[in-house]
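BUG: 3D viewer hangs when loading the predicted structure for this chain

Environment: internal workstation, default settings.
Expected: structure renders.
Actual: progress bar stalls at 90%.

Input used:
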Amino acid sequence: MPRDSRVDSYIAGRAEFAQPILAWLRERVHAACPDITESIKWSMPAFTYKGRPLANMAAFKAHATFGFWYRDAMATGREGEAMGQYGRIETLADLPTADAFEAQIREAAARIDSGEKPARAAKPPKPEAEVPPELAEGLAGDAKAAATFEGFPPGCRREYCEWIAEAKRPETKAKRVAEAVAWIREGKRRNWKYENC
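Structure tokens produced before the viewer hung:
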């Protein structure tokens, strides 16, 4: 596949120590899998295979990085030192041998060929929002609004609670509570104005 000139420009514009590292990584990726497509994504060189993300690389002031899209499956033990699977790459000596690296590229491509999707850790649900006393008082005086509020999903309740809690002046809080109770009584979510745009 043809090389992307933007990747050439990216490499040429990096610190002198990083240029040979990035060039080596790029050459090994293409040598391992000639069907790789390169581009710039998220302001850094990215490699895709059959239209799916495979890996990316970047250079910073004092180190470079290389990371696979299949983070957990392609672990090297150096995760956490920096972005990617190889930690802080400061010299070519920080990288595996060409054969070992190319084997990892082929393994990542095989994962794409198999249809496997990268595993992502599930985010724990956010805790239930604490209802500001002003809103609790406003809902206590309106049974219909209180019942509707309790029937809203947690994220919807959280939006109202945060909107009222972030008001600094008592007058602003009171105005927001009055609007919130009226909207809730009608079954409207906090951002109801934008839901049917």
